[in-house]
Amino acid sequence: MTPPPLYVRRPFLAGLVRQLPLLAVLVTVGVGLLLVTLEHWRWGLVVIGLALIGAGLLRLLLPVRRVGFLAVRSRPIDVVLMAGAGLALTVIALAIPAA
Question: Cα(59)–Cα(38) distance, rounded to whole angstroms?
Fold first, then answer.
């Protein structure tokens, strides 16, 4: 007899595993915000932009049951908005001349 699925045996653990992509993105954004706080604003914004691009890639590549709260709208809309915002933030941060 096969054991029941994880979401039946341990619902909290299953929910946590499902949110790992979002947690990875949030931790990366936190690192970027820390860099901004430490007055490395350009690199902080680049890290945040790369986190958004990564979120778009995770939304594109992961199945719906694994993506968690990164899935807000339809897949194409989520990918375009997250990756587009990340790309724009990264390009703008790198385009601003250093003082």
Answer: 30
Could you write out the three-class secondary structure of 30-84? HHHHHHHHCCCHHHHHHHHHHHHHHHHHHHHHCCHHHHHHHCCCCHHHHHHHHHH
The contacts of residue 30 (CB under 8 Å, 6+ apart) are none
pLDDT digits (tens, 9 = 90+) for 44-91: 999 999 999 999 999 999 998 889 899 999 999 999 999 999 999 999
Average pLDDT over residues 23-50: 96
CA distance to 15, 31, 94, 97, per residue, from 39 (Å): 36, 13, 15, 16
CA–CA separation, 5 vs 39, rounded Å?
A: 47
